[in-house]
From TrEMBL:
The active site is at residue 61. Substrate binds at residues 9, 13, 35-38, 55-56, 88. Residues 1-139 form the MGS-like domain. This is Methylglyoxal synthase. Its EC number is 4.2.3.3. It comes from Paenibacillus germinis. It is an enzyme of class 4 (lyase).
């Protein structure tokens, strides 16, 4: 069971809910986290349970970033809106930077997300189980 973060900007939320619905059978085997509004939308639209952090502009990206910094988060789907400025742009950049620091798979569009979720379903994320096995973690 991996830890997966799901984040979507407002104009990408419908796409996120549709995507998670399509792959609900894959996501249900994992522990899900999300920024406040995205997590709520996914819970309203599916049977999945998603741990809700703060909304993105209020610090949710940073809360998820903290788990990435600890090498606790295994996979991130972050459907950013590339055509609209966000008040918390520095938080968004910081989260993506931390994914690169730790080498965490992070999909920022649904085409990449689909490839990675299919890889997850095939068992290609087994190396993350090893990371957790050899690293004392937090719950
Ligand atoms: O702003 C976000 C990510 O940067 C998403 O936050 P919400 O899911 O609360 O809308």
């Amino acid at each position: 069971m991996l830890k997966i973060a799901l984040i979507a900007h407002d104009r990408k939320k419908d796409e996120m809910v549709n995507f998670v619905t399509a792959y609900e059978h894959v996501f249900e085997g994992h522990k899900l986290y999300g920024t406040g509004t995205t997590a709520q939308r996914i819970m309203d639209g599916t049977k999945l349970d998603v741990h809700r952090f703060m909304s993105g502009p209020l610090g949710g990206d940073q809360q998820i970033g903290a788990l990435v910094a600890e090498n606790e988060m295994d996979f991130i789907i972050f459907l950013r809106d590339p055509l609209m400025a966000q008040p918390h742009e520095p938080d968004i950049i910081a989260l993506l930077r931390l994914c690169d620091v730790q080498g965490i798979p992070c999909a920022t569009n649904v085409a990449t997300a689909e490839l990675l979720v299919r890889a997850l379903d095939r068992g290609d994320f087994g190396w993350r189980e090893l990371v957790h096995k050899y690293k004392p973690g937090i719950e």
